[in-house]
What we know:
This protein has 260 residues and is mainly α. The protein has helices at residues 2-13, 15-29, 38-58, 63-87, 95-100, 105-133, 145-169, 172-187, 203-206, 209-221, 228-252.
Amino acid sequence: xxxxxxxxxxxxxxxxxxxxxxxxxxxxxxxxxxxxxxxxxxxxxxxxxxxxxxxxxxxxxxxxxxxxxxxxxxxxxxxxxxxxxxxxxxxxxxxxxxxxxxxxxxxxxxxxxxxxxxxxxxxxxxxxxxxxxxxxxxxxxxxxxxxxxxxxxxxxxxxxxxxxxxxxxxxxxxxxxxxxxxxxxxxxxxxxxxxxxxxxxxxxxxxxxxxxxxxxxxxxxxxxxxxxxxxxxxxxxxxxxxxxxxxxxxxxxxxxxxxx
Length: 260
């Protein structure tokens, strides 16, 4: 247990390192490109445009209303889903680093979340573009994006850490997580407004933790206030999830290097 606390302290002292790791990963991925990370934003924007035109017709609503739902939804969802999906390989991809350098494992996770936060910041340009096109003025509710994103990031840290530990031990879980995220993307109200779900299935949304994480980021992006229930869920998840992941990490930390 003392070693785990020591890892946490060292991780805080190595803040510049994991900030550099996240930034370097983004720079390396888009090296020698003209638009850099904006290519990811552009691809998401094209996807929103195409899906918006189709789904607006399917849901029998106007494109403006649906774009105001879909754009913040996918901007928020892309951050949450990427944290889980890339978290499955956060330790697998760092095999040489782990085996050659005495580096705390949480440094790698925080580097991953910081990298995704940089990408998320680029995606905010889509929200700005939407506001300009439809002449939507900003409002006070958008300020809640800061605490909402921070709370979501805290949850993404322990989720990425947890799936990273599990997938390092059992590699097949990585495929199952990928399948689960694909299913969750359609079960969670990302593409469809929550108001469309039948009352008999409302529980599938209310007890979906990903929905509440989505809400505290999506609603401020759309200029709306998240419900208090969303904050309670996310706060509870942050406490319980972080504690559970901490205990699991404490139990397996000494064996993780032997799982490669």
